[in-house]
Amino acid sequence: MSLQRQVVLCADDFGLTDGVSRGILDLAEQGRLSATSAMTNMPGWRRAAPDLKPYAGRLGIGLHLNLTTGTPIQSMPHLAPGGTFPALGAILSDALRGRLSEEEVADEIRRQVVAFEAVHEAPPDFVDGHQHVHVLPVIRQALFAVLKEKGYAGRIWIRDPSDGMTAILRRPISRGKALIVKALARGFRSQARAAGFDTNEGFSGFAPLDQTVPARRVFSTCLTNLGPRPVVMCHPGHVDDELRSLDPAVESRPEELAYLQSDAFAELLEERGIALALSPAFRESSGHSAG
């Protein structure tokens, strides 16, 4: 039997809303995902987290570090003086100008890790970031320090949201987003590994702002030109009022959900020789797969 290509397919934003969490759980039950990452500062995390427990060992379950949506777990007078997290543009500007308090950011990262452990009753399998904030200056240093303090070095992996230039340019969808994130993540992989954390090699799944691009085309594109240990992100979910209050552009989530549940997606995986893997801690010759 020929070897299959191992890919981590990760649904971001578990806990964002009940509808999003329910959609991710539906896909997990069907074996159409291999990982999900949770926003533990959001109220939906505590409501939905118990439903994840049956999937431990079948699904990689990670922390989706969040500093741009909702409210911090405790007060952050520098980053969130009004009680809510800033938009991505504001935190990006502060990070690049060295205006973030590493101590304050580290405290919130620690709280979000503790909130994960308290409900899930286990450490996260990996860590990534909502809107990729975990790779920003100051935030990345705070993240490495907290995870090392927790004794996670050598035990969990951290998502590197960058990819090779050639791979990005060969994908016709969302090149601009991918190139910006690649620039922001410069040096992240080597720094993470120097701190004792494994990372993926290869990343895709950037969705276009153009809602007319169908999900089948997005996934067909992001599952090409894969790196040696790739992660593909996705954002499926059911739409509910809570989601509409957080993000007015929500229609891509149910479309992604429907496509990932479809026979067409299963056929795409078979045609490409892809098996879903729990983590990037594998080599193509290992034969390890999940789903």
Question: Can you walk through the features of this model?
Answer:
The chain has a single domain, classed as TIM Barrel, CATH 3.20.20. The chain has helices at 18-30, 43-48, 88-96, 102-120, 139-149, 165-170, 175-184, 188-194, 215-222, 241-246, 252-261, 263-272; strands at 5-14, 35-38, 60-65, 126-129, 157-158, 198-199, 203-204, 231-234, 274-276. Strands 1, 2, 3, 4, 5, 6, 7, 8 and 9 form a 9-stranded parallel beta sheet that branches. The radius of gyration is 18 Å and the shape is globular. The two termini are 17 Å apart. Helices cover 40% and strands 13% of the residues. Strand 4, helix 5 (139-149) and strand 5 (157-158) form a beta-alpha-beta unit.
Q: State the end-to-end distance.
A: 17 Å
Provide the β-strand percentage band.
5-15%
CATH class: Alpha Beta
What is the N-to-C order of secondary-structure elements (H for helix, E for strand)? EHEHEHHEHEHHHEEHEHHHE
Largest sheet: 9 strands, parallel
Number of helical segments?
12
Which architecture per CATH?
A: Alpha-Beta Barrel
Would you tell me the overall average pLDDT?
93
Shape: globular
Radius of gyration over C-alpha positions, nearest whole angstrom: 18 Å
Q: Give the tally of β-strands.
A: 9
> Mind telling me the CATH superfamily name?
Glycoside hydrolase/deacetylase
Q: Uncertain regions: pLDDT < 50 for 5+ in a row?
A: 283-291
Percent of residues in helices: 25-40%
CATH topology: TIM Barrel
Q: What structural category characterises the helix and strand content?
A: alpha/beta
| Whole-number total of structural domains | 1
